[in-house]
Amino acid sequence: MSVYSTDQLRLEKIHIAQTGHELLAVDTTIYPGEVLTVMGPSGSGKSTLLAYIAGFLDPVFSASGGVWLGERDLLSLPAEERGIGLLFQDPLLFPHLSVGGNLRFGLPRRIRDKRQQVTSALEQVGLAGFEERDPATLSGGQKARVALMRLLLSKPRAVLLDEPFSKLDTALRQETRALVFSQLREAGLPALLVTHDHADADAAGGRVIELG
Q1: Per-domain residue ranges of the chain
Q2: Which end of the chain has fewer surrounding CB within 10 Å, N or C?
Q3: pLDDT higher than threshold 70 for residue 132
């Protein structure tokens, strides 16, 4: 997959609080192709940080600080215009669409040869010929690969990872981590991973910020 991002994701003096109690403070820059890991126990504000960056912060939290992607001030844009790709614990594939339909959903409208893009994406992750498969028939690892390729086909400019490996068994977790991080590096995307698993941080291979 070709490089399509040269943007830095800048988190400038971000402070997030709940009912006056500060949960976290972050001030850092994530460079193209880098995965920054934020670690901490449940309730430390990890997922809240992702929500603030992506544009869907729950109003029970208060937040301040800047979020810049390249020269774009993300906080001035609605969530759907921020160019942020998201990977969650659950693959969140659409059950009413085939595997190919899920991938086509991720493609920008301007892409003309959608069929070829989908075929190529599936070949890249060892799922050649899976276009017509029902997502319900896939294993956990296969669903994770489809979710990753749907994300990359949507051409994000940065990626947020919210414990995306936590529901996979140990062997699958290692394999999926290696695939996800290699694809993000190849695409040159700045990525922010939140997790409580040190093995995730080790596999990401980048800087680690520990909360709490």
Answers
A1: 9-93+139-210
A2: C
A3: yes
